[in-house]
Amino acid sequence: MPFINLKVVGKLSNEQKKKIAESFSETLLKVAGKPKEATYLVIDEVNGENWAQGERFFG
Description:
The chain has one helix at residues 14-32; strands at residues 3-9, 40-46, 52-53, 56-57. By secondary structure, the chain is an alpha+beta fold.
C-alpha cells in the first residue's frame, strides 16, 4: 500500500488535487505495479509563513 504525503506552499483547488491524485496513482501503477485503489495520498497545504529553505522564508 503506497502512502504519499505531499506538502505544498499555499492552497490548491479541488480540481488540482484531483489531477495530482490521478497522476500519482497512475505513476505508481505504471512504475511499481501498485493498483490505484491501494494508493493513499495526503496533501498538506502549508502557509508560506511556515515554510523555509535554509535561511530563506517563503512567507
